[in-house]
Automatic annotation (TrEMBL), chain A:
Keyword match Transport: yes
Listed Pfam families: ETF
Protein name per Swiss-Prot or TrEMBL: Electron transfer flavoprotein subunit beta
Keywords recorded for this protein, A-Z: Electron transport, Transport
SUPFAM superfamilies in the cross-refs: Adenine nucleotide alpha hydrolases-like
Signal sequence annotation: none
Organism placement in taxonomy: Bacteria, Pseudomonadati, Pseudomonadota, Gammaproteobacteria, Oceanospirillales
InterPro entries, per the entry: ETF_a/b_N, ETF_b, Rossmann-like_a/b/a_fold
Domain Electron transfer flavoprotein alpha/beta-subunit N-terminal as annotated: residue spans: 16-205
Electron transport recorded as keyword: yes
Length: 268, 662
């Protein structure tokens, strides 16, 4: 098995993060975990080449945040320069289509801007590559097939074999990012790549407001013993009364979803 | 026959010593440049040796007298011997002096020998065990060959048939002595400490330490110059006079005896660390080291070279990273070192490389540094909540007043519920004394102490520069703080970055207020009290008296711990040690609370948020831990004709503090 292991080209997409308390720019938590995953691959699969990409404007604040990623041990990164408020997806898709990496790693959701978590899906759609979300580990690469470990709720893991090229997105299930060191961060260089910026017209029409905490659904615990109350408080509620639909037609699936939304009072 | 043999022996030894000296100097010069004044430094050696160094050595009277007799005798004997026997100035006066000098040295060496019978664990063995014999060989040899010079020996003894044998034996003994004393001095024998030590005194990188001065602030890294190394990766990255300092080590192990990390069984021994640096500078393995090892790390497994890494990326090199991270930067070793070696500087230099270049700050280090970068405090708290604990106190803000007498620096203890009680007590005292003070409030940031000691010079300088910019907007006569770490950094380390302030510890300030008659106290009714000197207040800033004066003013008679004052044992909370948390056999604060227990005190007074946290964290302690400010606040009585704001009711402050906290 070992000899067939081979290094591949990995592109890591990073965004400018935002500290939850102070709002200062920083390396985004999930994107940094994505880079950590790539760096771990580089250590285990000799010959792996990492390229790091960011699409956005170049200014002091974003440079400091991007150097936060570089301090994890990269010598350079590519900056797809475009003005604030531009759509990152076309720029990234165009660049990735030309650079043709075999694996693209990205965080699941940005910490500023839209933060919709749609970027990996939109990219996968544009490039026509498979997407795996919630990644926990990259296990091996053999003959153009990557073996991945996907994180499922409650600590479960699912092993997947995916044909390259592919996009994977990471969230908090991936290993924590290593410390960023000042020296390498300061020495690293940026290479600029020109883009044809497209203003994100939809975003421009939106009204943005600070997020509010969503109301939490109350858990009504009917239990006599302390053990039950503790279990209810400590554990994630297990989906009850759900059903797994397999081999159903799209109409049947849509019908089931519609019914559930009605039941939950989401649709009235 | 001896007349021809002696000059040959002496000058051979001197020549070899000279060659060795050149080789040794070349080893030191592998280090980075550090400008010194050669002539001024050399001229200062006698004073620095006789006054400053002997001030340290003199703490142990026995060894101090031994050293005076031995070293003084040796220097005089060596010079006279070269004159009398090397150059043939067989003057009876010179000869008489030579006899005296060698006698003094011989007596001294007897005491050296006595110390080597059952030597304490801190002393290195190996070649050091033969040193008293070599000293005796030299002094005895010189004494005997000088006897004929002054005509004290029957003329016939060295003639006749037995004389050849006698002369040969005498020459042999002398050759041994000369070998150790001259050849060994520059070729790495135990006597190396005399050669390197004298030059280290001349070219010390903290010349301010001599003549009663104090120099404890870490030296800033040049971050503007991108070519300058960020800390020390390999032995050659030290400055040349740091390397010289390492070489001066006499392996007396006083540092080892006072090191809290060593006592706690953490893998650090300051003496071994310095010896490892010597090994690295010359290249080789530590197998020849004959002292106590790092706890839990056998000798002989580490090796290094001048241009090889000190800490290996993987596996072992000269020193393991956990050794460097065990240090609490308490400076006890530096305070004790008779050779004036700067252990803490070296450790922080190496930490800088690990943090700034490798991003390898252990355990919670990375998280704390990230918090400092993102939120300006190590706990990651909202910087806008720095004054939440004082919501009911209506603290005057610098931003409103612009000009006050006293700027009260809160420190990061403002986020810590325990320290908030201290702060509230201190504010009660300041208000009672009607001090014109204000706080920066949310404009204050962490002083950068922890970042700097974790090796993150970049974050330190960023915090320091922003704090200096904030402080420059306001006018104040002095800064008062209850955090000795902030005190040290603001007072001793901001200067290099352009911030010069008069900083006072709250105990100093309270002592002044009391002396000025602005505070009056109810008589002390509690039990017996001992006082724990915080390292950053005592050893770093020389403030031993003020806290004791305050306690005295309160009517407390301090039951001193065995290790107090400049020999105070660290609480374990400095240098980011609680963050890097290197495991040992026991905890440093537990040992300190045992010290407290030995005095039988029911209460230990402290003056530092770190010490409070560390000592209060001891399980099953017999003594209560209270900050001096709290003791003062509790004892406050309203002065006659003072205002009637109601601050004098004793329990008021503590209960409100708890209400706010809960």
């Amino acid at each position: 098995m070992q000899p067939e292991q081979q290094g591949i080209d990995v592109a890591v997409l990073v965004s400018i993060g935002r500290h939850p308390t102070t709002g200062r720019p920083r390396r985004a938590e999930q994107d940094a975990r994505g880079l950590e995953l790539a760096l771990a691959m580089e250590a285990e699969l000799p010959g792996t080449r990492i390229s790091m990409l960011h699409a956005g404007p170049q200014d002091d604040g974003s440079e400091a945040a991007l150097r936060g990623y570089l301090g994890m041990g990269l010598e350079s990164m590519t900056l797809l320069e475009q003005p604030e408020g531009s759509d990152a997806i076309p720029a990234l898709a165009t660049h990735l289509a030309t650079a043709a990496p075999q694996l693209v790693i990205t965080g699941a959701r940005a910490e500023r801007g839209e933060g919709s978590g749609l970027l990996p899906y939109a990219l996968a759609e544009r490039l026509g590559w498979p997407l795996v979300n919630g990644l926990a580990a990259v296990e091996s690469v053999e003959n153009g097939v990557v073996t991945l470990l996907q994180a499922l709720p409650r600590g479960q893991r699912r092993r997947l074999k995916v044909r390259l090229p592919a996009i994977i997105s990471v969230d908090e299930a991936a290993p924590a990012a290593r410390q960023s060191a000042f020296g390498p961060a300061r020495r690293a260089t940026f290479s600029m790549a020109a883009t044809h910026p497209e203003a994100d017209s939809e975003l421009a029409q939106w009204h943005l407001a600070p997020a509010r905490k969503r109301p939490k659904r109350l858990k009504i615990v009917k239990s006599a013993s302390a053990r039950d109350r503790f279990k209810a408080a400590a554990s994630k509620s297990e989906g009850k009364g759900g059903q797994v639909l397999t081999d159903v037609s799209p109409e049947e699936g849509a019908e089931a979803i519609y019914k559930l939304l009605k039941e939950e009072d989401v649709l009235r | 026959m001896l007349d021809t043999l002696l000059p040959i022996l002496i000058f051979t030894a001197l020549t070899l010593a000279a060659i060795g000296a050149v080789r040794r100097i070349r080893l030191w010069r592998q280090g980075r440049p550090s400008p010194v004044n050669l002539l001024k430094g050399l001229a200062a050696v006698p004073r620095r040796y006789l006054v400053d160094l002997h001030h340290v050595v003199g703490r142990d009277k026995m060894i101090s007298n031994t050293h005076v007799a031995t070293a003084g005798g040796f220097v005089a004997a060596a010079v006279l011997m070269i004159l009398v026997h090397g150059l043939g100035l067989a003057n009876p006066v010179l000869g008489g002096l030579l006899l005296l000098a060698s006698t003094s040295m011989f007596i001294g060496s007897l005491f050296v020998a006595r110390r080597r019978i059952n030597p304490p664990a801190r002393l290195s063995k190996g070649p050091w065990m033969r040193l008293p014999k070599s000293l005796m060989a030299f002094s005895l040899g010189v004494f005997l060959i000088t006897l004929p010079t002054v005509g004290l020996l029957p003329e016939g003894l060295l003639e006749g048939s037995g004389s050849w044998l006698l002369a040969l034996i005498l020459a042999g003994v002398l050759a041994w002595g000369l070998g150790e004393m001259f050849f060994g001095m520059t070729w790495g024998g135990p006597m190396k400490h005399a050669f390197a030590g004298a030059l280290h005194l001349a070219f010390h990188r903290r010349a301010e330490r001599f003549g009663g001065g104090r120099s404890t602030g870490l030296k800033a890294l040049n971050l503007e110059n991108e070519a300058a190394p960020l800390g020390v990766e390999k032995p050659a990255d030290f400055t040349w006079n740091q390397l010289l300092g390492f070489d001066a080590c006499v392996q007396c192990g006083r540092c080892e005896a006072v090191c809290p990390a060593f006592a706690a069984g953490q893998p650090l021994n300051p003496k071994k660390l310095i010896q490892d640096m010597v090994v690295g500078m010359a290249g080789g393995s530590d197998a020849a080291y004959a002292g106590s090892p790092y706890p839990g790390k056998p000798v002989g497994e580490h090796a290094g070279s001048p241009h090889g890494p000190i800490v290996a990326l993987e596996g072992k090199a000269l020193v393991d990273a956990d050794t460097l991270w065990s240090c609490t930067t308490c400076r006890a070793c530096v305070e004790e070192c008779p050779m004036m070696i700067e252990h803490v500087d070296a450790i922080v230099d190496m930490r800088r490389h690990l943090t700034l270049e490798r991003g390898k700050t252990p355990n919670k280090g990375a998280e704390v540094l990230d918090n400092l970068i993102a939120t300006d405090n190590p706990g990651g708290f909202d910087p806008g909540s720095r004054l939440n604990w004082a919501a009911d106190l209506e603290l005057p803000l610098m931003a409103d007043l612009k000009q006050v007498d006293v700027l009260l620096w809160l420190g990061d203890g403002a986020f810590d519920m325990r320290n908030q009680r201290t702060l509230r007590a201190l504010i009660k005292v300041l208000k009672a004394a009607e001090v014109d003070f204000a706080v920066l409030g949310n404009e204050e940031r962490d002083s950068g102490d922890v970042a700097r000691r974790l090796g993150d010079e970049a974050t330190f300088q960023s915090l320091a520069k922003r704090n200096i910019a904030t402080l420059s907007q306001y006018q104040f006569l002095q800064i008062v703080t209850c955090d000795p770490h902030s005190f040290h950094v603001l007072g001793n380390e901001y200067g290099e970055l352009g911030g010069h302030y008069k900083v006072r510890h709250h105990s100093t300030f309270i002592a002044e207020l009391f002396e000025a008659g602005r505070l009056s106290f109810a008589p002390w009714r509690g039990g017996s009290v001992t006082y724990h000197d915080p390292c950053y207040l005592g050893r770093y800033n020389g403030e031993f008296e003020a806290p004791r004066n305050v306690l005295k003013a309160l009517g407390i008679e301090v039951k001193e711990m065995e290790r107090s004052g400049f020999r105070s044992r660290c609480c374990g909370g400095g240098g980011g040690a609680p963050i890097t948390d290197i495991p040992g056999k026991q905890r440093i604060p537990d040992m300190r609370m045992n010290d407290v227990q030995e005095t039988g005190a029911e209460l230990v007074a402290v003056g530092c948020p770190q010490c409070t946290a560390m000592l209060e964290g001891v399980v099953d302690a017999n003594a209560e831990v209270r900050d001096i400010a709290e003791l003062v606040a509790d004892a406050l009585v309203e002065r006659p004709a003072a205002d009637t704001s109601g601050t004098a009711h004793r329990p008021a402050a503590t209960t409100t503090a708890e209400e706010v906290i809960v």
